[in-house]
Amino acid sequence: MTEKLSDETRGPLLEPLFATGWEMVEGRDAIKKTFVFKNFVEAFGWMTRVAIWAEKWDHHPEWFNVYKTVDVVLSTHDVGGISALDAKLARKMDNLAE
Ligand code: HBI
């Protein structure tokens, strides 16, 4: 069962993400990041590759794409906050955006 990360366990999981540009969403237990690509095709191609992992892991982002920019918010709806799945998907997003 997926669980919301406790205050004690979230540090080691989230600190590395904060270092790569992820931030807490104000007023919500969620993390956010804006990815900017060379153009729309690069942005959408990245979204497509992320989508395949999201479907494989049954864990989906909240994202908004305008041209070459993708605004992403990650949280686990089932537990009402950030879980390890969000950290895993965030790492995958960073890796696929390199
Ligand atoms: N994605 N971000 C996120 N949070 C969820 O709770 C979630 C999901 N994708 C699929 C999913 N839950 C399903 O497991 C449940 O809706 C049944």
Automatic annotation (TrEMBL):
Enzyme Commission number(s): 4.2.1.96
Domain of life the protein comes from: Bacteria
InterPro entries with a match to the protein in the record: PCD_sf, Pterin_deHydtase
Alphabetical list of Pfam families matching this protein: Pterin_4a
Catalytic activity, as annotated: (4aS,6R)-4a-hydroxy-L-erythro-5,6,7,8-tetrahydrobiopterin = (6R)-L-erythro-6,7-dihydrobiopterin + H2O
Membrane-spanning ranges: none
Gene Ontology molecular function terms on file: 4-alpha-hydroxytetrahydrobiopterin dehydratase activity
Keyword entries, A-Z: Lyase
Similarity comment text for this entry: Belongs to the pterin-4-alpha-carbinolamine dehydratase family.
HAMAP family in the cross-refs: Pterin_4_alpha
Name recorded for this polypeptide: Putative pterin-4-alpha-carbinolamine dehydratase
Lineage: Bacteria, Pseudomonadati, Pseudomonadota, Alphaproteobacteria, Rhodobacterales
Gene it is expressed from: phhB
